[in-house]
Amino acid sequence: MTNPFWTWVIEEGLSAFGANKAFGGPTSGQAGPCWSWNRYGRSETAMPDGRVIRIGGEHEDHYDPDFYIYNDVVVSDPAGRIEIFGYSEDAFPPTDFHTATLVGDRIVVIGNLSYPKFRKDKAQVLVLDTNHYSVDRVDTSGAGPKWLHKHSAELAEGGLTILVRGGLIDHPRWPSLVENIDDWRLDLDAQKWERLTDRAWPRFYFTRADAEKNHLYWLRDLLWARGSKRPDRFADSRSEHLRDLGPTPRLDLVETLYSPALPHSKVAEVESEFRVHRVKIDDITVRYVERDYEVCLTVEGSLPDETVELLRAELLGKLQIIENAQIDCTRLMPD
Hints:
The protein is α+β, with helices and mostly antiparallel strands and 335 residues long. The protein has two domains: 4-195, 6 Propeller (Neuraminidase); 203-331, no CATH class. It is 19% helix and 30% strand. The protein has seven helices and 24 strands. It has helices at residues 4-12, 16-23, 28-31, 216-227, 235-242, 251-255, 305-323, and strands spanning 43-46, 52-55, 58-59, 68-69, 72-76, 82-86, 99-103, 106-110, 125-129, 135-137, 141-142, 147-149, 152-156, 161-165, 168-170, 178-179, 184-187, 192-195, 203-208, 265-267, 276-281, 284-290, 294-299, 327-331. The strands form six sheets. It has a six-stranded antiparallel β-sheet, covered by helices on one side. Strands 11-18-17-14-13 form a five-stranded mixed β-sheet, with no helix packed on it. The longest helix has 19 residues, at 305-323. The chain is globular, with a radius of gyration of 23 Å. The two termini are 43 Å apart. 27% of the residues are buried.
């Protein structure tokens, strides 16, 4: 594709807002999203000949007028030349938060979040030819993961298979995006998936019955502010977010939210993780993942049913008091 504006945006490393501002363009709310080189979930593959191949990605999120999920391939060479390849959505759907695994002269693209209308029952697999830049869909067979993104992919068995772990799955039976806790292998020649693990871990998702965001992020921010000696520049914003909880939110319960009333030991937090908390009970890890719309409780192993029920019931009770609202609890059943 020949588009000098897009090439210039890439060379300057601009976001949609920056590019639009540079040209004094119309507002994106009126004219639609402006093309952006600032993206999340884009893959970047370094080739042996010095080329760098970048695939897809999204700019911002649905609330932003410049939100867009891309279905392009951008190639730069050691001399600084840039080529942009565009595709029909049938050949190459808008793709973000995928993995890109180099296998010879092909890049195997696994997974995708994309727009809801493009999501299917099983994980997307595409193959990019790095010589001609054609994209082919792969119709896989076998027991593969559902619609998957933000996972890892590792080339194995001398380049014959790809191992896939982690990530998030979108499934119509589940209340929200759900963590993938199993491992999968894709046979590249047979184009067939194999499920390597079947972890029947107890998992629960806690969400507000009114489908609104929870208040946990802002409550923890309030706790931090009270313990900090810095000027509180966000007090007004925080108060607005917490106004539904009244003048005395239950900060004491927030501080003990993931400290169950059972013998347990704390596990040190992982610096690269965000809002993830762990405890050990009888040498089994219990993991709590806190998000804006849900809290996820995962028991990573086998504990007595009564222990699991105590963990579930205690967390549900605390969340209902903290949120001053009805909380729904959904148990994820093995797929």
